[in-house]
Amino acid sequence: MPQSSQLSAVYSDIEELTELLVSYFKQGIERGEYCLWTVTDALEEERVKKELEKADVSVEKYLTSFQLEIINTGTLSKGSPLPESAVKELMKEKSEKAFSEGFPGFRMNVSITRKGGSLNPDPEKLEENLKEINRDNERKLTYLCTFPLEELSGSELLRLVEEKGVLVKRKGGWECLMHTCNINGQKELETTLLTAKKDAEATNRAKNSFIMNMSHELRTPLNSVIGFSDLLLEGAFGPMNTKQSKYVNNILISGKNLLEIINNLLDISRLEAGEKTLKYEDVDVASLIGEVRMNLLSPASVKKINVELKIDPSVGNVEADISKLRQILYNLVSNAIKFTPARGKVVISACKKEGVLEVKVSDNGIGISEDSYEKIFMPFTQADSSAARGYGGAGLGLFIVRNFVDLHGGDISVDSEVGKGSTFTFTIPAKPENTSLQENETKNTHDILRITCPKNTHDILGITCPKNESLFHLAFLIIELHHYLWTGRLFLLWFSEAVKKLTIELPSKAQM
Fold it and tell me: How many CA atoms lie within 13 A of 53 on its CB side?
């Protein structure tokens, strides 16, 4: 570790951060310094204790001797980053205590994150506070500012490196990047960052490709499991006794849960791969909300939860990507049902205000603590509650919701109280700008074949049919959809029941 009053480090995930801080504080303990480790919640506190023990640090020994202190700052700031004033007071109080008790040095960590467009707490103000506390510069007082890499802009990262140097993990070890030039006059920093960027992009592409391929390979057989389970429950192959129905229903529920996780992983991979385009079309909001409600009536009825709609008559239509808007609604409503106890209530309301669609999903479930409001929108994260963890799930739904809402130029918020329920509110523009060009390009490259199906199956299948192809090509397009409609065999069963009621709209001769 470099010897400096103020250190800066960037990390890409929680594992890297924990590894860095363990090394940082282990060094301080070995040098006899007073070490103050700040954490954000009780779970993190338990994790750092385990990691220190793995690094051969006797945690209880140093906690008892008061050389090591672990403070949960989440209780001080209600989950938000500590302001500069609070960091200053904490540093002043604990450093004075350390030096009064004869410790040769003091060190602590400060977690810096982005909030409202700016870094909080402000690193420059922290440096000023440090100078005030250690005016004579005789005391050995060190603090480490940690920055999540994904929240730093390129200019901010460069400024950190140029002004102070920054710790980064490279090739399995931690290195301090400084603003220096080599013999050829090229900046070592730029070369290092470019190499790291290329390595990270290559790794990310490989990861996304693997997830996409595996998602397809898993979904195809999984849809067969779901489809045949559904047919068995409907008695398509003969009646079943109570125990058989129960077990088949368990298979169906587990299969649907697994399929939802796979689909969510695929959505995240597409977002990370840069697939952030929207296919705008006119969407009937009331009909779409009603469709989502119907799709979720089954899990709601199992828990005897009443799903109520409060749609303002003037809500009308909006221009949006219907598949992503459907996913937003589905994730919010399914979460509300999941975390609402039996015989509870879920309310979906929608209205239009000054050209903006506002949708609220409310429940009277277990609720969310205020310090978890931001955390729940992070991937693979749930509210810090043993009750919430007992409900299962991968913690992906709300992350996808926020990203899809952001893509529409909207906003999402949560208002909740533990034990009383939650209300998620999202808004999107009713008519976004610059959609006409995208729609025209679509019309110039494809003709759209729409198939209207019976309401008890799928309301509308939109199939894109390339120009100059014969109608016979439709058969192959339908077969390509077999894994979305369970399997080829199940599709035929569905099709035989629905074909008499199909209405097919083909492009006119003028369009062909």
Answer: 10
In the chain, what is the greatest distance between 2 CA atoms, to the nearest angstrom? 91
Dump the DSSP string for 191-217: HHHHHHHHHHHHHHHHHHHHHHHHHHH
Using DSSP bridges, classify how beta strands 460-466 and 446-452 pair: parallel, antiparallel or unpaired: antiparallel
Q: Are strands 141-148 and 356-363 parallel, antiparallel or unpaired?
A: unpaired
Question: Residue 363 corresponds to which tokens in the numbers above?
Answer: 């429940």
| Token pair in block for residue 392 | 């299962």
- Expressed in percent and rounded to 5, the helix, strand and coil fractions of the chain are 50, 20, 30
Coil/strand/helix, residue 371: helix
What digits encode the pLDDT tens for the residues 404-459? 998 899 999 999 988 899 999 999 999 886 544 344 433 333 333 333 333 333 33
Q: Is 197 buried (19+), middle (13-18) or exposed (0-12) by CB count in 10 A?
A: exposed
pLDDT score recorded for residue 306: 94
Tokens of 343: 């015989």
Name the 3-class secondary structure at 277: coil
Let me know if 472 is exposed, middle or buried by CB neighbors in 10 A (0-12, 13-18, 19+).
exposed
H/E stretch holding 225 reads helix 188-233
Residue that the structure tokens 């369970």 belong to: 486
In eight-state DSSP terms, residue 81 is P
Contact 407, 432 (CB under 8 A): no
What is the C-alpha to C-alpha distance for residues 479 and 499, in angstroms, rounded to an integer? 15
Of 150, 192, 152, 149, the closest CA to residue 171 belongs to 192
The DSSP-derived string for 28-48 is HHHTT-EEEEEESSHHHHHHH
Q: Specify which residues 68 forms β-bridges with.
A: 35
> Mind listing the pLDDT tens digit for each residue in 371-402?
778 778 877 666 554 544 556 666 778 888 99
For residues 330, 332, 333, 338, the Cα torsion angle rounded to the nearest 10 degrees is 110
Beta strand 68-72 with 34-39 is parallel
The pLDDT tens digits of the residues spanning 307-352 come to 999 999 989 999 999 989 999 999 999 999 989 999 999 999 999 9
N-to-C CA span, the chain: 70
DSSP lists the bridge partners of residue 345 as 306
pLDDT per residue as tens digits for the range 68-97? 999 988 776 655 667 788 888 888 899 899
Question: Which has the minimum average pLDDT: 107-116, 307-316, 456-465?
Answer: 456-465
Task: Tell which wins on pLDDT, 497 or 20.
Answer: 20
Instruction: Measure the CA dihedral 240/241/245/248, to 10°.
Output: -70
Beta strands in 453-492, from DSSP E residues, in sequence order: 460-466
pLDDT value for 162: 72
Nearest residue to 82 (alpha-carbon basis) of 125, 33, 46: 125
Question: What are 268's two structure tokens?
Answer: 């995240």
Number of Cβ within 10 Å of residue 51's Cβ equals 17
- Reported residue count of the chain is 512
